[in-house]
Amino acid sequence: MRHEQDWITRIREHAAQLNSGWVAMRRHLHQNPELSNHEFQTTEYLVKALGSLGLPVHLSGEGRGLTADLVSATELASGPCIAIRGDIDALPIHDSKTVVYRSRCDGVMHACGHDVHATIVFGAMQVLSVMNAAGELPWPVFVRAILQPSEEIAIGAQHMIHHHALQGVDAILALHVDPTRLVGCIGLRKGTLAAACDTIHLQILGKGGHGARPQKTNDPIDAATHWVQSAFRRIARTANPHGTVVFSVGQIDAGHSANVIPDNATLSGSLRSLDQESRRVALETLEDVCEAVQRESGCELEMRLGASAPAVVNDAKLVDLMIESVGQTLTAGAIEWIEQPSMGSEDFSYYLEHVPGAMLRLGVSGEQVGNAPLHTATFDIDERALAIGCQLFAAMVINYFDPAKQVRVG
Question: Which of 2, 172, 270, 324 is the most buried (most CB within 10 A)?
Fold first, then answer.
């Protein structure tokens, strides 16, 4: 027990000393957000930051995203490795906060906490690097930081995997900020944490004409509205009530004049599901609706799938690792068990198709700041959450390599 108390104490002491730098990093990233597929300056900034720790940094393809390894003993170089993942892209939302670190990019904002995720991954690597240099690690560790682009459009994880980010990795950990939980609270769940998500795109090709003579047209707007209502109704009646499915339409585009029936229409939506059978049934139902509306309207309907992400399924042993680490860095009472999976999605799930992993929810809400919802123009965090996340990630890495426990997953 004494040995454990020593390295936990070192983590806390280093976090106290380094915290002001983490706050500065998070604010810099918040002020300088970049959209998905455009994270070049963010990547360059983080390459320099991790390189300053003396770590070998690998820049991913196209200059977006990076990995950095800390191998504290040469015998581990070909041994087990655990990865900690953060994301770095922002959203097309205008920052309406009145704070000194408000976004400097009109219409672009870190409204989902990716600035926090990236800072925490860096902070954990910094703590572990300092402890390694001071001979304070209780045993050797091999950890890889993965900082990925394009999470918001669900292609960043695949980008990193394609560029070998998981090569040699045995397990992976991640977190997501949670404004519904207070600072110091950690949300955990074994099994399915977040839903699979499929983006649905529908193109309707009709025959336009004068608004006074609809009988001479094949009206794509009528077909679109019919398809939406039929899809909502049919999915509700065909999906297994024990397998949650959520279908929403978020965009419809058609026409340019009040008295002209257009030639075509397009719409986009999302299908979220918690199991493969529910997903299969829902997609087949949408195809059936296309065929029915096509026959009735005379329009041609073409449905295709866009960006998709599988469900996030947490490995039980890695969640146990999180439980232990929360108890060490906070208290066991800090854990809040998540009763139901989120119907939101996360492209962290792509890593889990290759290696076991787990994601936790990090409380970021304080008395004065941090309770605005994700993806809103006023989203912010109580910055005390930064040190909590950094300490927790560092402890999880150390616990993973505890020779007395031999945490292995699969």
Answer: 172
